[in-house]
Design goal:
With 343 residues, the chain is mostly helical. Helix content is 62%, strand content 3%. The protein is built from 15 helices and two strands. It has a two-stranded antiparallel sheet with strand order 1-2. Helix 1 packs across helix 15, helix 11 packs antiparallel against helix 12 and helix 14 packs antiparallel against helix 15.
C-alpha cells in the first residue's frame, strides 16, 4: 500500500470536529461473559488508574502512557472484568450494494451529505445583528462615518487573521458558543454525536482518551483556537502502522467506523446529519492515500455505514446514557462504567 505521512490522523467530532486521533488496533480475543459477572465497583481502582494514565498521556509520554492504558483495559477484558470492550457484534465484512443498504433503511445519499444548517443559521444571525447594530448607530448619529468604516475594516482584518492563524478557530468559538444560547437542542446534538464516536470506538476495541463538547472546552484544554469539539483516542499502535508505511485491514475497518459514527448518530436521531463532514473527508483522503479505487472505497464505506448503523441501533439506550454522562463532564472511566453497565 501507499505510504502515508506519520502525522496522518482521522479527526472526528461535531461539528467541524478536531479530534486528534481516531485509531484502530488489534482486537482482544473473544471472551464470553455473563452480565454483571463482576460488579463494576470491584474494578473501580483499576478504572481510576486508567484515568490517571490518560491524563498523563501528553507530550513525550503520550505513546508510553497510551500503551499502558490500553494494556490495563485489555487485562480487565482478559480477567472478565470488562465485557464490552472490543465485543461489538459486527455485520459480516463483504461487499454490499446500495440496494442492500436500502433494505436496511439506510439512504447513503442523505447519510453522507451533512449540511451544517444550525451553525450557518447562527452565523447569519450574528452577522445580521452586527450589521443592524452598526446601521442603527449610524442612523441615530451615535456612530459617525469614520468610526463605521474603521469598525468594518477592523472586523475584516480580525476575521482574515483568524482564518490564517487559527483556521477560523476564533470564529468557530464565537459561533459555537452562540449556538448553545440560540438553539436549545444544539448541546444535546453535539453530545450524542460525540457519544457515537466514543461508543463505537469502545465496542470495536479502540480506547477513548478524552473528549470535549464545545469549542470553549477545547480551547481551555489545549489553549489553542484551532481545536474544536471532538473525541481523542489512544492511537499509538495506529501511528506505528502509519510510520511503517502500511495500514492493516482491521485498523482501516475501525478507522472507518469511528469516523462515520457521529454522522450516523445524527442521521439516526434527527433524520439528517449536520456535523461530521470533515470526518467523511478525512476518511476519503485516507483511502485515496492508500491507493483505493473508487469501487474499493465504495465497498469499504458501505460496509462501515451498515456496521455502524447496526451497532448504534442495537445500543441506542447505552448511547443515550453515555451522552447524558458526557454532558455532565464524566471522566473516561465513568463513561466506560456507563457502557459496561448497560451493554
Amino acid at each position: 500500500m501507499t505510504a502515508i505521512s506519520p502525522s496522518k490522523r482521522l479527526t472526528t467530532g461535531c461539528p467541524r470536529p478536531s479530534l486528534h486521533g481516531v485509531l484502530p488496533r488489534s482486537f482482544p480475543r473473544h471472551v464470553t461473559i455473563r452480565r454483571h459477572l463482576v460488579p463494576l465497583n470491584a474494578i473501580s481502582p483499576s478504572l481510576d488508574k486508567l484515568d490517571g494514565l490518560l491524563h498523563q498521556s501528553h507530550g513525550s509520554k503520550t505513546a508510553s502512557r497510551e500503551k499502558e492504558a490500553v494494556s490495563l483495559v485489555r487485562e480487565l477484558v482478559e480477567s472478565g472484568d470488562l465485557k464490552a470492550f472490543g465485543q461489538g457484534r459486527q455485520v459480516p465484512k463483504r461487499s454490499y450494494t446500495i440496494e442492500e443498504l436500502r433494505l436496511n433503511k439506510i439512504n447513503t445519499k442523505d447519510f453522507l451529505a451533512p449540511e451544517d444548517t444550525t451553525l450557518d443559521d447562527v452565523r447569519t444571525k450574528l452577522q445580521l445583528s452586527a450589521a443592524a447594530g452598526l446601521l442603527a448607530g449610524f442612523v441615530t448619529h451615535a456612530v459617525d462615518t469614520f468610526y463605521l468604516v474603521q469598525t468594518i475594516i477592523f472586523l475584516g482584518l480580525i476575521l482574515t487573521a483568524d482564518q490564517v492563524a487559527n483556521a477560523g478557530g476564533l470564529e468557530a468559538l464565537v459561533v459555537d458558543s452562540a449556538a448553545r444560547v440560540l438553539n436549545s437542542t444544539y448541546h444535546e446534538r453535539v453530545a450524542k454525536h460525540e457519544a457515537g464516536h466514543l461508543l463505537i470506538a469502545y465496542l470495536l476495541g479502540l480506547l477513548p482518551k478524552g473528549y470535549t463538547l464545545s469549542s470553549w472546552e477545547a480551547f481551555m484544554e489545549n489553549r489553542r483556537l484551532n481545536f474544536q469539539a471532538g473525541t481523542t483516542f489512544c492511537d499509538s499502535e495506529f501511528q506505528e502502522e502509519i510510520a511503517q508505511g502500511k495500514l492493516s485491514s482491521s485498523s482501516l475497518d475501525v478507522y472507518a467506523c469511528v469516523a462515520l459514527a457521529g454522522v450516523a448518530t445524527e442521521w439516526l436521531r434527527y433524520g439528517r446529519a449536520e456535523g461530521g463532514l470533515s470526518d467523511i473527508m478525512q476518511l476519503d483522503n485516507l483511502m485515496r492515500a492508500l491507493g483505493f479505487t473508487q469501487a474499493k472505497a465504495d465497498d469499504q464505506v458501505r460496509w462501515a455505514v451498515l456496521n455502524v448503523v447496526t451497532l448504534l441501533r442495537r445500543h441506542q439506550k447505552v448511547q443515550d446514557k453515555l451522552a447524558n454522562a458526557m454532558m455532565r463532564n464524566a471522566s473516561i472511566s465513568e463513561c466506560i462504567r456507563v457502557i459496561e453497565d448497560y451493554f
